[in-house]
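Summary for the steering committee. One of the milestones for this cycle was to obtain a three-dimensional model of the protein with iron/sulfur cluster bound, which we needed before selecting residues for the alanine scan. The sequence and ligand used are listed below.
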Amino acid sequence: MSSPCQACGACCAYSADWPRFSTEDDAEIALIPAAYVDDPAGRMRCDGDRCSALAGEVGRAVSCRVYAVRPEVCRTCEPGDPECEMARRRYGLPPL
Ligand code: SF4
Ligand code: SF4
């Protein structure tokens, strides 16, 4: 079964404040290709509200270009949790 996230991506395009680094150490952040990292801001580089590592079209088909090394906050986000539903609402996607 595929994850609902593969046809969503709303939480990756909700706010530049969301993909922030937290528990990562420098070595872990160094694994993420530099083009996707906003070092001074301590987070992923974003274009507006959208994480630069998000590929595809929100609500249709998306993927994370840095999935294997994505930040901790991206790993803890669960489909159906309150932040997920908030992000999905913004994009007119139905609740899970
Ligand atoms: S908003 Fe929810 S369903 Fe969509 S990608 Fe994020 S966790 Fe997955
Ligand atoms: S790093 Fe990947 S999972 Fe995290 S916000 Fe960006 S696109 Fe989404």
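Key point for the committee: The helical segments are 26-30, 72-76, 82-90.
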